[in-house]
Every structure is written in C-alpha cells, then in structure tokens.
Design goal:
single chain, 162 residues, mainly beta, Substrate Binding Domain Of DNAk, Chain A, domain 1, 6-stranded mixed β-sheet, 5-stranded antiparallel β-sheet
Length: 162
C-alpha cells in the first residue's frame, strides 16, 4: 500500500525562544498578527508539547531549545499522512483553520515572522500534528547539541480534517 506524499513542503531553520515557537493562521482580513490577545492562553498552555486555541487560529509548539534554532519542515497533505518512522516522536493532532497562509512566529518581538503560503479557495478546517526528533532534554544537552551543530528536528504535518 502506498502512503500519501505531501503536496507542498517548506523547509527552514527557525529560531525558537523560551522553549517554544508559534504558528498562527490569521484570517484574510487580519491587518496585523495578534500576540497580546494570547498571553493567558500561552500561560495556561505552557508545558504541553502542542496546544491550539478553540478557534484553530493559534498553535503553540514546545521544543527543547531555550534560545536557538530548530530544523523545521512544514508538510501539507491532501489526506492523513502515514505513521512516522520509529525514530520520530509525535504529538496529538489538533484542529486548525487555514484561511490563506500560516505564519511561523518566534515569541521574541525582535524576530521576523515567516509566512508559509498554502493556496486554496476558502477557510478550511485542517488537522495539525508535529513530529520531533533530537529534542534536547535540558539546557546542558541543548548546549552540547548546539556546539556540535546538531539541531532539534520538527516536522509540522497538516491535512484536511474529516
């Protein structure tokens, strides 16, 4: 049986701060990305691997990097992706709504947000999960990994919700 292949893939090295980075799905009429509105959500969701707001427009992803870079890949599928290889760990799926783009955000305001386009006709509910590997377990391991040039790997997988 063949497994579905992603229809779009974006790969980048992305800065993480405070053991996290964020994904936002701003509606088409958003004039700017909102950060302050989610402070309570961020405070109450800290510590989990993945948390999404009820409206599906904001996701917080935890990582093992206090301040540094994550090797990040975003994959879009037309159907649920195959199970990951044994070397990957996986988060639970969450619901998100994609209007026209997803935006990768660093908690530091001095970092540039990175839009990742995904073209489709209308806002659509999707599922999102994160695969991760080489996650440091503590600041000393994170420092050793950075010194060795080894980055934590994250793969964000997104597909239409059933």
């Amino acid at each position: 049986m063949s497994h579905p292949e992603p229809v779009a893939v974006h790969h980048l090295v992305f800065p993480a701060s405070y053991l996290q980075y964020r994904v936002q799905f701003p509606p088409d009429d958003a004039e700017q990305l909102w950060r302050e509105e989610f402070e309570d959500f961020i405070q109450t969701s800290a510590g989990g691997l993945l948390a999404a707001t009820d409206d599906g427009q904001f996701v917080m992803i935890s990582c093992g990097v206090q301040q540094g870079e994550v090797d990040l890949t975003v994959q879009f599928f037309t159907q649920p992706p195959p199970p990951p290889e044994a070397s990957w760990q996986i988060t639970p799926d969450v619901d998100v709504v994609i209007d026209r783009v997803l935006v990768l955000c660093n908690p530091d305001d001095d970092q540039e947000d990175i839009p990742v386009p995904y073209h489709h006709d209308q806002p659509t509910r999707h599922r999102l999960r994160v695969l991760y590997a080489d996650r440091p377990q503590g600041s000393s391991e994170a420092f050793r990994q950075q010194e060795a040039g080894k980055l934590e790997k994250n793969v964000i997988q997104i597909w239409p919700a059933p």
